[in-house]
Design goal:
Strand content: 15-25%
Oligomer: single chain
Distance between the termini: 21 Å
Number of helices: 11
Number of strands: 11
Helix content: 40-55%
Strand order of the largest sheet: 3-2-1-4-11-10-5-6-9-7-8
Largest sheet: 11 strands, mixed
Length: about 325
């Protein structure tokens, strides 16, 4: 049975949404043993259903690296410790991204041979049921060419194992499809991948094409990836607000909205951000999933399901085998 550590504190909406997410999951499945870390008095609804680990402190959003490591009593630190000590197979948190990345990298550690871990997230596309893996989306602000090229390798390996797809296609994010386009480190990463003659490497891809359903993996440095991710999220929010405003503009548009309700409901379902599951730190020894800081119960449950799918996949073993470190 999978053992999953859950950080119940640090999210914008408090521990209740985590409790509800765990209970909802347990009502539907019995394949996971949960270790939920937080203030025990806020987790009483989980008594007898999950292991409760008391933690009295919360990791701050502005905590520096030394402070992060010293704050032993935070729920995040204790949750990551459960993974680094091999008591649990993975961890999910919606706390501080910087603190989570620091703890996961230093305690769970990189797979030997991996130069830098990448945050990878699966984004919905124009093709229903098809997701594009984008990495790195913010684990680092600066990456060199070797790291970006390795993100492409990691992305191919992860996508192939998670979706059991033999022929994966991988692109580099760029400002043009031509080989000579891109930032200096991106152009160098292109040459590294080209010289390896990887059959899965398909060249550059512009941001406007990345969610058209044809792309499996899009690799980029963390700064550009984070800007891309937030641009997509911001655009989706803007379009949603404008659509709602237009539909309720007058009686005529309200009648039209009523008629179009099934189509609008399907649209909302397809672009629902709670289905994304957050981001997984790829390239380390265990599954560590960072849920959105403002995740509600449904979104956090999706992050739990995402982590479980990653644990059940041969992703970690495949990466270790790829870099010659599998036991």
């Amino acid at each position: 049975m999978i053992k999953l550590a859950v950080d119940a504190m640090g999210g914008d909406l408090g521990s209740k949404i985590v409790v509800d997410a765990v209970l909802n999951y347990l009502n539907e499945h019995n394949d996971v043993e949960f270790y939920v870390v937080g203030k025990k008095e806020e987790l009483t609804a989980l008594e007898g259903k999950a292991n409760i680990v008391d933690a009295r402190d919360v990791m701050g959003m502005e905590d520096g690296a030394l402070s992060i490591l010293r704050k032993k009593e935070t729920s995040m630190n204790k949750a990551v410790e459960l993974v680094s000590s091999s008591q649990c197979d993975g961890v999910v948190s919606c706390g501080s991204t910087g603190a989570f990345l620091t703890l996961a990298t230093l305690k769970v550690k990189l797979i030997p041979g991996v130069k830098r871990a990448a945050l990878g997230t699966f984004m919905p596309t124009l093709v229903e049921g098809k997701y594009t893996l984008i990495l790195d989306v913010g684990a680092s602000n600066e990456n060199n060419a070797e790291q970006i090229a390795q993100f492409a390798e990691i992305g191919e390996c992860v996508y192939r194992n998670v979706y059991k797809k033999d022929a994966v296609n991988v692109y580099l994010l760029s400002n043009g499809a031509e080989e000579h386009k891109g930032c200096p480190e991106g152009k160098e990463a292109y040459q590294i991948l080209k010289n390896h003659q990887y059959p899965w490497f398909k060249g550059n891809m512009e941001a406007k094409e990345c969610l058209n359903g044809s792309v499996d993996v899009l690799a980029t440095g963390g700064y550009a990836g984070n800007v891309l991710l937030k641009s997509i999220e911001g655009t989706a929010m803007m379009v949603s607000s404008l659509l709602k405003e237009s539909l309720y503009m007058n009686l005529r548009t309200k009648i039209g909205a009523k008629i179009a309700y099934p189509a609008l409901k399907n649209l909302k379902k397809r672009i629902d951000p709670s289905k994304g599951g957050g981001a997984c730190l790829m390239g380390i020894n265990k599954v560590c999933v960072k849920a959105h800081g403002n995740a509600n119960a449904r979104a956090f449950q999706t992050a739990i399901e995402y982590a479980i799918n990653m644990i059940n996949s041969p992703m970690i073993d495949s990466l270790k085998e790829k870099y010659g470190t599998k036991d």
